[in-house]
């Protein structure tokens, strides 16, 4: 018998994993005679998997015998940073494993289920994500990071008062939310114009992260950037500079330069995919947005809209020099944040 409320509990456990970086959030519950005997989740990148943590939380490991494990993701079958969880599950005598979803990671996908079945463990797969691991799932299904484009606009759809200045449009609640959006992504990217006009740090300031997002800037020539830019201030966050030239000076350890003749969105996304980066937040400006729209590399949008009309010569959020490139979005969510609105939407399938 399968009890959905136990799987819901496992998803709640999974969400407590705060520092899983490119690893998935995973939660597990051990149930016997309709009683929850133990709960656990994957706590930290590189640390024990949820299944093992849960078994470790049992008062007596013998209680696992003939029990049911509810686990949000297919238990792993590979020797990675830790030994395979399926071996442990079989070894302790669990008789039934209820799985939220098959692991999209090809190293495991289906192999964990097969191993369990081959060892006479009953397996059920519910095909539920619990609303977690959006980027993880996307990355393995599409072999590239999930790209979110994020910007703030006025009521007349502009991101600034003029091309040469930064305009702060939204209030404190939107600012705090945007910090959380940064924290939820593994890389944040801007173009050269935004780098020079806005001079951002691109760091997450409202929380202390074990793995802050990698800051990615696309520029023409790394050697022509002012050393006074905030992005060069000492930081625990990595900085990847995508340049057309090599750097002619030694840079601090947190900075890496990648060289190519052009840095099209496709190339950027491939570089990130090669480095196992599952999510990218593109934060401006309007030309880089246009580049991503042109290549249809926008999977999500997050817009903060402020109750102000700017008029004048400000830029639109997507400033394109091509006739049209339509991308449709759905699953629109609108939240009010102070006086501003947050509009969040996923690209239509
Ligand atoms: C996790 N936590 O609770 C489970 C995972 O890098 P490794 O060796 O820790 O392996 C990561 C892979 O293990 C991950 O992509 C997924 O396929 C599988 N399951 N991973 O980090 C967990 N159950
Ligand atoms: Zn595992």
TrEMBL record:
Q: Which cofactor does it need?
A: Zn(2+)
Keyword field: Hydrolase, Metal-binding, Multifunctional enzyme, NADP, Oxidoreductase, Riboflavin biosynthesis, Zinc
> What domain of life?
Bacteria
Q: Which reaction does it catalyse?
A: 2,5-diamino-6-hydroxy-4-(5-phosphoribosylamino)-pyrimidine + H2O + H(+) = 5-amino-6-(5-phospho-D-ribosylamino)uracil + NH4(+); 5-amino-6-(5-phospho-D-ribitylamino)uracil + NADP(+) = 5-amino-6-(5-phospho-D-ribosylamino)uracil + NADPH + H(+)
Residues of the CMP/dCMP-type deaminase domain: 1-115
What Pfam families does this protein's entry cite?
dCMP_cyt_deam_1, RibD_C
Its Gene Ontology molecular function terms?
5-amino-6-(5-phosphoribosylamino)uracil reductase activity; diaminohydroxyphosphoribosylaminopyrimidine deaminase activity
The organism encoding this protein is: Companilactobacillus mishanensis
Protein family according to the UniProt entry: In the C-terminal section; belongs to the HTP reductase family. In the N-terminal section; belongs to the cytidine and deoxycytidylate deaminase family.
InterPro entries per UniProt: APOBEC/CMP_deaminase_Zn-bd, CMP_dCMP_dom, Cytidine_deaminase-like, DHFR-like_dom_sf, Eubact_RibD, RibDG_C, Riboflavin_Biosynth_HTPR
Q: Which CDD domains match?
A: Riboflavin_deaminase-reductase
Q: What is its EC number?
A: 3.5.4.26, 1.1.1.193
Name of this protein: Riboflavin biosynthesis protein RibD
* Cofactor binding, per record: Binds 1 zinc ion.
Pathway given in the UniProt record: Cofactor biosynthesis; riboflavin biosynthesis; 5-amino-6-(D-ribitylamino)uracil from GTP: step 3/4; Cofactor biosynthesis; riboflavin biosynthesis; 5-amino-6-(D-ribitylamino)uracil from GTP: step 2/4
- Write the lineage as a comma-separated list: Bacteria, Bacillati, Bacillota, Bacilli, Lactobacillales
What job does the chain carry out?
Converts 2,5-diamino-6-(ribosylamino)-4(3h)-pyrimidinone 5'-phosphate into 5-amino-6-(ribosylamino)-2,4(1h,3h)-pyrimidinedione 5'-phosphate.
